[in-house]
Design goal:
By secondary structure, the protein is an all-alpha fold. The protein contains 13 helices and no strands. The protein folds into two domains: 1-161, UbiA prenyltransferase (Tetracycline Repressor, domain 2), CATH 1.10.357; 162-289, Four Helix Bundle (Hemerythrin (Met), subunit A) (Up-down Bundle).
């Protein structure tokens, strides 16, 4: 059981389940206007996303082994709870199973896009771990893009996709903007949490380049943009309005917490609140008229 729990931690199972929940719930939102939709295509994309996400997390931890020994000395898994060799085998298995699923999707949807998409996303994820996450702001933007892209995939397989479907008053537009902004904020908070190890290994993350104070100002600006943006989203549905007010209250609270935050524990708590606030935002989108 201990070995299984180590793999659960290594692939960030909780994060993958949240992403699957986001994709599933967006399918539920689509059912409001398209009750004839089958769940099977969405299920395939959820599995597709799960395996590419799991392999990305393992690869990132292998690349970041030296960093994690500094940033997470008590919780890093590779060479502590799992051997490097076992982790590399796990990476191969998750990647290969995911690739097989992408091949199945290619035949099921009759689109070569899915196999190519899997390889492109895997390549981009690898470059993220090796190069992009070490470049000022670029890595943060890529992770935020991935989060929004996972929602777009559900739109694509169920009802197709065109740019006219993206507007700020639509469920899709709200979710894309919300998920992108909150993921971006969370990634920068995580950089603040990991600044000690990142600095020793020469990374150029936002906190290292700008310093703590300027990074906090940048985070506050993004949170204020989020709060102002949410304040424009009020509808005739009282459930949406209540959930929207809850989100606004959470982000006002985080504005104050970021000002006071000074150590890993504070930043980790802020990061966790941001992660679970995305679930509230998703439920909120369901009730958007």
């Amino acid at each position: 059981m201990a070995n299984v729990s180590n793999w659960v931690i290594l692939i960030r199972f909780n994060n993958l389940i949240i992403n699957a929940f986001v994709q599933f719930f967006y399918f539920i939102i689509l059912l409001k206007e398209h009750p004839e939709l089958s769940f099977y295509p969405t299920f395939l994309i959820m599995i597709f996303s799960f395996f590419i996400g799991a392999s990305t997390y393992i690869f990132n931890d292998i690349v970041d082994l030296d960093i994690d020994k500094i940033n997470k000395p008590e919780t890093f898994i590779i060479e502590n709870q799992l051997s490097l060799k076992a982790s590399k085998w796990g990476l191969f298995v998750f990647f290969f199973v995911g690739f097989l699923i992408s091949i199945y999707c290619t035949f099921y949807f009759n689109l070569i896009f899915w196999a190519a998409n899997y390889l492109i996303l895997s390549g981009l994820s690898s470059y993220y771990s090796i190069i992009f996450k070490r470049i000022f702001l670029i890595g943060n933007l890529i992770v935020a893009f991935f989060c929004s892209y996972s929602i777009l995939l559900i739109q694509f397989v169920n009802v197709g996709f065109d740019f006219s479907s993206i507007n700020l008053n639509s469920n899709l537009g709200f979710l894309l903007l919300f998920s992108f902004l909150i993921t971006l904020i969370r990634e920068i908070v995580k950089d603040l949490e990991d600044i000690e190890g990142d600095k020793l290994l020469g990374l150029k993350t936002l906190p290292i380049v700008l310093g703590d104070k300027k990074t906090k100002l940048f985070l506050k600006a993004l949170l204020i943009i989020s709060i102002v943006g949410l304040s424009f989203y009020f509808s005739n549905n009282w459930i949406f309005n209540v959930l929207n007010c809850v989100l606004i209250a959470i982000y006002i609270y985080l504005l104050l917490e970021i000002t006071k935050a000074e150590d890993k524990k504070n930043y980790h708590r802020i990061s966790s609140i941001l992660k679970y606030s995305m679930v509230i935002g998703l439920i909120c989108a369901y009730w958007l008229d």
